[in-house]
Specification:
alpha/beta; Rossmann fold; 9-stranded mixed sheet; globular
Amino acid sequence: MEAHLDVSLAAFLGEPRALVLGGGRTHPFEQGCDELAAIVAGTGVEVEVIDDPGELGRLDHELLVVDAMWWSMVDRPDDPHCGEWARRIDDLARRAIEDHVRLGRGILAVHTAVVCFDDWPVWGELLGGTWSWGRSWHPPFTGVPVHVSVATDRHEIVRGLGDFDIVDEVYCDLGFVVDVEPLAWAAVDGGEHPLVWARELDSGSRVVVDLLGHDHRSMTHLAHHELLRRSVAWLLDRDIVQDGEAAA
């Protein structure tokens, strides 16, 4: 994964900066996360990409983006890959994220970000919901498009953005710690499952959770690309310039 900037130069210029955490098992993060970083950079944000959650301790950026799958793997004690892939979020990283939120800075949590940091309940409290082992699930990823319904009247992020079909996973039955008002959702087995929601915390910090984004095809999908672009603008408290209805 590439770093898209010299962070010291960005700080000197006063431009907003984003720290993007990628990496992990079972997903093609190399391509998908770089595509996501390019989307964020395309909004005029200076981007740095990392693939080690241990580096979160130096978070001092205006935006934190997580598109990764780093978790404790305690649900898989016999997995031979635990030694290579299991991660716990250390105290320095926890304090850095808490300070980030206290300062009113934004978080964009994409796809498997809801699986991350399962040993730290605060992460779920910030996002509003996370993957719950033994309960959460998703239908097999078959390459067949899923239909995403969009509530265009609920938030400026999705205003004018119509329903769309996309090849992606649909995460179902997450463990929610607060009531979320979905901006987009998909119907699976007779139930409607939130895919995108936005929150504003008491500190003024803004959070967008986007459960789409399995791979680079999802990131480059016209409607999803537009949704991500708008999310970045809202998280940084910028005006959202609508490109009209995006669909594919």
